[in-house]
Structures are given as C-alpha cells and as structure tokens.
Design brief:
The protein is α+β, with helices and mostly antiparallel strands. It has one domain: Peptide deformylase (Peptide Deformylase, Alpha-Beta Complex). The chain has 3 helices and 7 strands, in the order αβββββββαα. The chain is globular, with a radius of gyration of 16 Å. Bound molecules: nickel (II) ion.
Length: 173
C-alpha cells in the first residue's frame, strides 16, 4: 500500500465531474487500498479519488471514529444518492483538501446510497449521522463540489486565500 499525495484546494482537478469506474480491476483494488491507507494516515474519515488525482467515481470512508472502535473501512464505487430525507442536519465539516478549515454545512440528515462494491456487486444502504454527512461530502467531490461551495462567497474566498497562502508556503519548503 502506498500513501498518495492529497491535492490541496484550489486545484482544477478538484472542480471536475469525474467519470464512472467501468470495471473493478486490480488497479481499482490497489487504488482502494492506497486511498484507505492515505485516509487513515492523514488522518481523515473520508477521501474521494479526485483528491488523490485519480479522476474516477470512487470514495473511501470510515466514520467509526471513537477511540477503540473497530475500523469500518468502506469502499464505494460509482456511488449515487437515491433517496434523501427531508430532515436536515448541520455538521461542522472539514476536508483533507482544505486542511484546518471547518464550517457548518446543512445537508439531508439521512440518505440512501447505491454503489458497486469491490466484489462487483451493487449495494444499497441508508446512512445517518456522521456517516450521512461524510458520504454526501465525498460524493460531492466526484461532482467537483467542495463543502466551501455551500458557504457565503466572502467566507469561501477567505478560506481559498488561506489555502493559496498555505500552498505557497508548502512550495517553498
Ligand atoms: Ni473533502
């Protein structure tokens, strides 16, 4: 397994609608392993393929966050939301591509998602709580959308400027 480099906003690759995975090949399985390793190492609870510069519809997540909790690594290929609750919930969201920036985002409290697993089978599951927020945040990445796109323009610009500064500093080191 390899820890891959995570793209930092702003990056044009984080703004693209990416293409479906056609076949669950060895490359796809290797990418899934690498993405989980990269996510746990960060550490984070979700990661989408475009964040590691692979432009395909795939994400990993594990929201079993409490210490001593058994890890629940999930790999979702070609995921889509097929039902959203009318109830909404607000979470203080962050993103591995926007380090150290957090903001409240309101989304449907529960969603039913359909996806293809690593075994090639189609799965459907309803997510609540943090899992629901996380899966929606990660699916957004596959459509070139970031959590800061839900914020007011001024706040979004402020965060983007901080990230530009961070990237300049990283480039210098
Ligand atoms: Ni993110």
């Amino acid at each position: 397994m390899t820890i891959r480099n995570i793209l930092i906003h702003p990056d044009p690759r984080l703004k693209k609608v990416v293409a479906p995975v056609v076949d669950v090949t060895d490359d796809v399985r290797r990418l899934a392993d690498d993405m989980l390793e990269t996510m746990y190492n960060a550490p984070g609870i979700g990661l989408a393929a475009p964040q590691v510069a692979v432009m395909t519809r795939m994400l990993v997540m594990d929201c079993a966050k409490e210490e001593a909790a058994t890890p629940v690594p999930m790999v979702l290929i070609n995921p889509s939301v097929i039902w959203s609750s009318e109830d909404r919930s607000v979470y203080d969201e962050g993103c591995l591509s926007i380090p150290d920036q957090y903001a409240e985002v309101e989304r449907p409290a529960s969603v039913k998602v359909s996806w293809t697993g690593l075994d090639g089978k189609v799965v459907q599951e309803t997510f609540d709580g943090l899992w629901s927020t996380c899966v929606q945040h990660e699916i957004d990445h596959l459509d070139g959308k970031l959590f800061i796109d839900y914020l007011k323009p001024l706040r979004r610009q402020m965060i983007t400027r901080k990230m530009q500064k961070l990237k300049r500093e990283m480039a210098r080191d």
